[in-house]
Write a structure and sequence with these properties.
Oligomer: homodimer
Radius of gyration of chain A: 21 Å
Order of helices and strands of chain A: HEHHEHEHEEEHEHEHEEHHHEEHEEEH
Largest sheet of chain A: 7 strands, mixed
Chain lengths: 391, 391
């Protein structure tokens, strides 16, 4: 049996995520990791999680551990529907699908929307795991450049001739840049998508994590035919693997069919736990804690960058989320620098990973959420010395 | 935006599972449900689950709720590797992938193995959710008949001319028939698969649930190039969504790539909980409880069938698992009878759902695991009256 001759053609389009592999190397306590997009586990409210689990098991007994509906727990869907409803839009239970993390939402969306050769517009750079999830469908990516206000939406007009099917967008505190799509561009994006009959997939894992500036409306608020993806991973705990899709009913119906085959349903226990934590007020007390801590860490990183990094470097100034992107002079290759950085006890993700068209070799993504303040200064200082020796 | 014009071609091959839809209709307390393959939730050890969760959170704190490796927790992979190793085969951590239930294992296997037009040999009838998971790849199913000893393996020789790529098989207490592949046929299956260079996918959710007869070796014990799928759903609790694949390393590598895109990793908390329950001896005390209870329920159903069902009906006599299949005279259509059965408070799954080639319209699948003994007799009596009025 020669397995290599057995694999399906689409496997040629699959690869391991460089980041997830890198995370394994940086699990050592002595490494200051700016690499993975990990929340700060020391902030997780263990006593509250314990009491929530006890409450769930007391209330639902064996049913909390039984099979449950593919669409998700009705009460959790209702809670999300209320949370997304506002003066502009009314979201109902039928518009909500619970998924096994936001990643499964993206995977399922790719499965129901994309045929081989379909064109997908993405920010460049964009979320790496979106590319790996959708690439095996045979879809092609059309990159659009970004600046401090997010995707340069005006470029979409010239891409219309390629007849794109989907626009994928992380409007708030984008991964890897940390930038936010401006209000004017959100409106323009919706208009262009409507004109061209292109679906928008709005991926919003970080929207609740804003540390400065004013909250902007979701794209889904303007345009009720957006597929919106959310998750508890960044606002509660990623180990639960509970995310969701908010979308028109026809889309939810197809996604539900795809999810039945993918994993039957998302863990019953974890959905109950998420609802117990989110639905009974805990989330509203926990979000300010996250915002305060991550906001301080962001400030610490911005200050350390200003203090230590070479003048030839530039970086984004995120108003929220977990990441910022540093751009170094053209001749510096951050992938080549990484082994030396790891050796000196600091990890980052080379920005090349997130870019299409071979761009971004001189960029690096830094996560400020997972390292304590004092370690942020130390880590940035170490990196700056390394950079300086190559500038 | 017309969503119906937007969906990918593969969505035409997707559909909702009739069983999962039926389960919603049978969630009413007053319905005696022989329909879904649900474990008996009243047997779930809630106090033990609570103490296990506390132990996990005390030991691992925030890390129990953090992102974790796509392959699964190393300790859980090691535990499974030891469990599957025996004199015949040595399974190592690298041969184990943790999945979000057995269903995700099947989905991922389809993604890495099947191109459009590939042929897959399946028992007829077979597991419904396997068909829905693999159909969207464009694979074609070649059905093989079954008898009391499982798949008629001798038929495989005549199918060789179709150059099948994969044989999918549930050797122990098959769903929906409850039959077990005999030892002689296991050996013959392995020989034929080796000769023809066909991969075997051995799906074994029920193997530990044997109530009579002697345990048979796994197919994977004979042939180290089998992809073996297992799950905690039937031996612990399905709401955890923790399953696994045991396979050669080359296969695990591809499956890991596919899983990264599918949902990053399986819930960290649930993997810890499964390991805490399974790895510290609880499983060995819980399995006898399940075997005793389900065994009694199986006996109750077989007795009630013998006592009440028309002489023209036949049924399988499973040595384990959760299901048996009843065959009625040709002219009876069990799909047409279902509404009347539900009206009288009894649910089953029409056997047609599991069959290829339009067969099995006169069959029904009965699950004996989820109803208490006294309700089993009542339910079978009700069904028999309904059958009698149509025989």
């Amino acid at each position: 049996m020669n397995w290599d001759q057995c694999f399906a053609q689409r496997t040629a389009l699959m690869r391991r995520s460089a980041i997830r592999e890198l995370m394994k190397a940086t699990a050592r306590e002595d490494v200051i990791s700016f690499a993975g997009g990990l929340p700060a586990a020391e902030l997780f409210p263990i006593p509250r999680v314990k009491s929530a689990l006890m409450a769930v098991l007391d209330e639902f007994n064996g049913q909390a551990l039984q099979y449950s509906a593919t669409e998700g727990l009705p009460e959790l869907r209702d809670w999300l529907a209320r949370r997304y409803s506002n003066r502009g839009i009314r979201v109902q239970r039928e518009n909500v699908l619970i998924t096994t993390g936001g990643q499964q939402a993206l995977d399922l969306i790719g499965r129901i929307l994309l045929d081989s050769g379909d064109r997908v517009i993405v920010e460049n750079p964009t979320y790496l795991a979106l590319l790996s999830a959708w690439r095996p469908t045979g879809a092609e990516f059309l990159p659009v450049g970004c600046d401090a206000d997010g995707m340069r939406v005006e470029e979409l007009e010239s891409l219309a001739r390629h007849k794109p099917k989907v626009i994928y967008c992380v409007p708030n505190f984008q991964n890897p840049q940390g930038t936010t799509l401006s209000l004017a561009r959100r409106k323009q994006l919706v208009e262009l998508a409507q004109e061209q009959s292109v679906a928008i997939v709005e991926d919003d894992p970080y929207g609740e994590l804003r540390y400065s500036g004013e909250a902007l409306p979701n794209i889904a608020d303007y345009f009720n035919q957006v597929i919106h993806v959310g998750t508890f991973s960044k606002v509660l705990m990623p180990g639960l693997r509970v995310g969701w899709v908010i979308a028109p009913e026809a889309v939810i119906e197809k996604l539900t069919q795809a999810k039945q085959s993918a994993d039957l349903h998302t863990s019953t226990l974890n959905q109950h736990l998420a609802l117990e934590l989110a639905g009974k007020g805990f989330l509203e007390t926990f979000l300010p804690v996250l915002r305060e801590n991550y906001g301080e860490r962001r400030n610490a990183m911005l200050n350390a960058l200003a203090k230590y990094f070479p003048k030839s470097a530039t970086w984004t100034r995120p108003e929220g989320g977990m990441f910022l992107l540093v751009t170094l002079p053209r001749h510096i290759n951050t992938s080549e620098l990484l082994p030396a950085a790891l050796e000196q006890g600091v990890a980052y993700v080379p920005g090349e990973e997130f870019h299409l068209n071979g761009e971004g070799k001189n960029t690096l993504r830094l996560s400020f959420a997972n390292a304590r303040r004092e370690r942020i200064e130390t880590g940035i200082k170490t990196l700056s010395r390394l950079m300086a020796s190559h500038v």
